[in-house]
């Protein structure tokens, strides 16, 4: 019996996935300073040369890790049109995902917090946060256009407040999991935004 050989692209994708997983684990276990190309390669079972081949430098590795860890945090939103329903589902889904927060999401939060004092991280996370806020602002604007959201609401300010609240809850959950009841918060926080925004 023969097994099909993996293509070069499949081998490349597998190596990149293993390297990003190793990088996320290192950030969670030892902090951002432990994130060196050599440490990532050793952790993943590859040489530093492979890490350099895939990412070039630590900055590119961190940027790729930031993108990988934030992508698809709340599944099932891709097909929903912008509007209040999508915004509320995002809030509810985000808090629901915190109940089973994985290593990639933990790494993202730690990198995000570290970006406040690390200039090389700041640009990456400013870009990611700007995209997140733009999506939320689009939802509020669509809700206003649909006549569902109060037209006096500022889409930009609402987006800043929602991101701040979700990330703040996530960091508290990471710091002290027992004190953050994500099941109860899903109801409380989603209900708050529904009442605050609805016309």
TrEMBL record:
The HTH tetR-type domain is annotated at 13-73
Where is the chain membrane-spanning?
none
Question: Which PROSITE patterns does the entry link to?
Answer: HTH_TETR_2 (PS50977)
GO MF annotations in UniProt: DNA-binding transcription factor activity; transcription cis-regulatory region binding
Q: Which UniProt keywords apply?
A: DNA-binding, Repressor, Transcription, Transcription regulation
Q: Which residues bind DNA?
A: 36-55
Record-linked SUPFAM superfamilies? Homeodomain-like, Tetracyclin repressor-like, C-terminal domain
Cited Pfam families: TetR_C_6, TetR_N
Quote the protein name from its UniProt record.
TetR family transcriptional regulator
